[in-house]
UniProtKB/TrEMBL annotation:
Domain Alcohol dehydrogenase-like N-terminal residues, every copy: 25-144
Signal sequence residues: none
Organism: Corynebacterium occultum
InterPro entries in the cross-refs: ADH-like_C, ADH-like_N, ADH_Zn_CS, GroES-like_sf, NAD(P)-bd_dom_sf
Matches recorded under SUPFAM superfamilies: GroES-like, NAD(P)-binding Rossmann-fold domains
Cofactor dependence: Zn(2+)
GO molecular function, one term: formaldehyde dismutase activity
Record-linked CDD domains: FDH_like_1
Protein name listed in UniProt: Formaldehyde dismutase
EC number(s) recorded for this UniProt protein: 1.2.98.1
Cited Pfam families: ADH_N, ADH_zinc_N
Length: 393
């Protein structure tokens, strides 16, 4: 089969690799009909290289058709499914509490990480990813989400990651009717977090330096701001001087305006992999501008919800400010299956209340994935969300 493989810093290529095979009776093999490029894939492309190996298949936002099902998978050939990016058993102590991203069966204990993820480095199990023609799905008796045949792929595809991640971010922010919410970063997660906040009745401010992202958010009733020195003051001025009730940081470790963190990222990229891994495991190498701006902006007694990925173990935090402002801080990988009952009716609603029809900016065959990564990473051509079609040549 063809698959997108990691080959080095800022280098991915489509290669012919062996087809996946069933390895357990609760596995399934799906033919991938749509697979998206995630903002966190860019961390592999840029920052997390020390944890990658040449030839690793990347990607973690797929859907498709079952072509082979293990006897214990609860699936059958022909089922149309969305596959969550987290691999969870559904029955361990953590899963019983709805903490599927902390599954005790699939945790990567070598690195002290949570549940295994598709296509996401040694840190999360080096599981072959989903930007490929076929995908082996472990724990298919629990993970895959069966969907109908009437709607196009894009209505369901984002149940794999984007929508549950954004929904959890807003749930953790604890906002609803009449509250105020700011979202830093209007990539795919930020776009959906902002729309979900508005859907739940909040007044939402969206902050991003990229005009095309601000324009997309504005189409959905979000009050948009460029990212600059005066942005927080401007938003405070509209919230009685206090700041919003909650802030979602949907940016993560590669924030603009973080020169020290950027230098650290570049240094890690130049080191031999073994040394680079140690630096990532023990040093503060995140770009923290968006996080620090979020802490500054949120009102006293408010909530900060992190959905952007951070990778440094010793990144400095302004604890005095966090304590003094009495800020609640929540974060974590999305517990995808916990939120599906809330989200499935929304993506199937003909009125499209979350605007799922207005998120994809680029649809390309898998063969064009390397060009798509470069375009997405450099924010060129209005690239906000890329969906790859492995069935198209």
């Amino acid at each position: 089969m063809k698959a997108l493989t990691w080959q080095g810093k800022r280098k991915v290529s489509v290669e012919t690799v062996p087809d996946p095979v069933l390895q357990a009776d609760n596995d399934a093999i799906i033919e991938v009909t749509s697979t998206a490029v995630c903002g966190s894939d860019l961390h592999l492309y840029e920052v997390l290289g020390p944890f990658m190996d040449p030839g690793d298949i990347i990607g973690h936002e797929p859907m498709g058709r079952v072509v082979e099902a293990g006897t214990g998978s609860n699936l059958k050939e022909g089922d149309r499914v969305v596959v969550p990016f987290t691999i969870s058993c559904g029955s361990c102590w953590m899963c019983a509490k709805g903490l599927y991203s902390q599954c005790e069966i699939t945790q990567v204990r070598e690195y002290g990480s949570g549940a295994r993820l598709f296509g996401y480095s040694r840190l999360y199990g080096s599981v072959p990813g989903a930007q490929a023609q076929y995908l082996r799905v472990p724990h298919a008796d629990f993970g895959p989400i069966k969907v109908g045949d009437e709607l196009p792929d894009h209505r369901y595809l984002f149940l794999s990651d984007v929508l549950p991640t954004a929904w959890q971010a807003v749930q953790y922010a604890d906002v609803g009717e009449g509250d105020t919410l700011a979202v830093f970063g209007l990539g795919p997660i930020g776009q959906m977090a902002a729309r979900i906040g508005r859907h739940l009745g909040a007044r939402v401010f969206g902050i991003d330096p990229v005009p095309e992202r601000r324009d997309m958010a504005a189409r959905h009733g979000i009050e948009v701001f460029d990212y600059g020195e005066d942005t927080n003051d401007a938003i405070r001025d509209t919230t009685a001087g206090r700041g919003p009730d909650a802030v979602v940081d949907a940016v993560g470790m590669e924030a603009h305006g973080s020169p020290v963190g950027k230098l650290a990222h570049q240094a890690v990229g130049l080191l031999p992999d073994a040394i680079g891994r140690k630096m990532m495991e023990h040093a503060g190498v995140d770009r923290l501008a968006a996080l620090h701006s979020s802490i500054d902006l949120v009102r006293r007694g408010g909530t900060l919800s992190l959905s952007g990925v951070y990778g440094g173990e010793a990144s400095p935090m302004p604890l005095l400010t966090l304590f003094d402002k009495q800020i609640q801080l929540r974060m974590g990988q999305a517990n995808v299956k916990k939120w599906i009952d809330d989200l499935l009716p929304l993506v199937e609603d003909a009125a499209d209340p979350l605007g799922v029809d207005d998120l994809i900016t680029h649809r390309l065959p898998l063969d064009q994935a390397p060009e798509a990564y470069e375009k997405f990473q450099k924010k060129q051509d209005g690239c906000i969300k890329v969906v790859l079609d492995p069935t198209e040549s």
